[in-house]
Amino acid sequence: MKASFILITLLFSTFSFAQGLDRLAEVVTRTDKNKPIVDEVLLTDLISSEKFEGKYFKIVSGKSDEAVAFNDSVELTLRAATTYYHLTRARQYFVEKVKSEYAASLPQMVIRIELTNQFSELGHFAHDNLTPQFNNALTIPAGEGLASKGVTPWGMEIWFRPKKRIHLRDIQTNDLGNQEFHVLMTRFRNQIHMQSLTRFLAQLVIAATTSTDTLTKDALIRTAGSSIIMEAGYQFYEPISKFFSRKWYWLDSALVPEIIYHEYAHAALSDHLELSHSTATIEGMADFFAGQIANSPKLAKKIRKYNTFNGKDATKKQEYMLQFEATAYANTDFVFGMLWELKNILGAEKGEAFMFELRKKITTNSSVRVDLIEGILSTCEEVCETPFLDKLRILKALNLRGL
Length: 403
Ligand SMILES: [Zn+2]
Prior knowledge:
Number of domains: 1
Number of strands: 10
Structural class: alpha/beta
Strand content: 5-15%
Order of helices and strands: HEEEHHEEEEEEHHHHEHHHHHHH
Shape: globular
Number of helices: 14
Bound molecules: zinc ion
Radius of gyration: 22 Å
């Protein structure tokens, strides 16, 4: 009797592990109207019954190698569950929808939440004292490690930084402290559209927290998407503390679905787009697929609105500027908006397949004006049904954007 019970238990657990374990968990997700809510969802493909470790993702806190336990603090488990859930969705999209063999072949990825260290190509983590990072996320390439310093090799990872709240009162630049969030956004849209929102706010944060310009270019290089993606993430509401404010700014990147999709897209596209640094091309591609995975009509409307028109009263499309090629402007919405528009010209389904093929014709270092356009045209040559006519339509659209 006892033996058969053990046998059944053994068989059952073997069966469960082969299938992957499922578990209900609370995560931050979005309503049909794109509002963030905490909802109970099913986490799939887990290989542990105690912690956030699955076949494809292991969620750890900071520099730890151990997965976050299901019974850890709410602060940690909500972020672990949210990243796990949306990463699983993003992976499913790449494997099932666009049929990425590369995404299907990726080994389990380590996902770090609440990590403030900068990335070091040699040491994995830069020294703790080197400008801690907040309010962003990044995807790092695999590294060989440094045996002499005890640094073991690591695989491709995604890092989500903790949030850091900045009060408007502490933002002294140009009297912005007296402005409400929507006023700040309007100003950002109308006057500083070419910069990424994160850079814009980061500058305010530096002014508020330090007297010297310690946030170097390197620290700004990797952000969590273009300003549209970022804007979706700037929240006035904290799901755990129920804190609500229009006077505080923060980006809780591990709780923002679009940012999680953006980072996974970097990983899934890295078979051709190397994770060396941020450029308009690589960020635009990651944003495009983040937008596709989010598949939200509200977000699509926002993308159309902000990318088709430059400013409230302007009637022309956002035009190309030479500055977009510079790293500092890698997170502008320009390439994202352009790819989104071309997708609609080619038709939603065909356009999506087109953009996935496009990654083979470009590199992270591709310039927008020359290489990206050449890549788009040669992709069309291969996959468009009527290449001559389609290329004309593409060129016309590009022309209207000043390219
Ligand atoms: Zn990015």
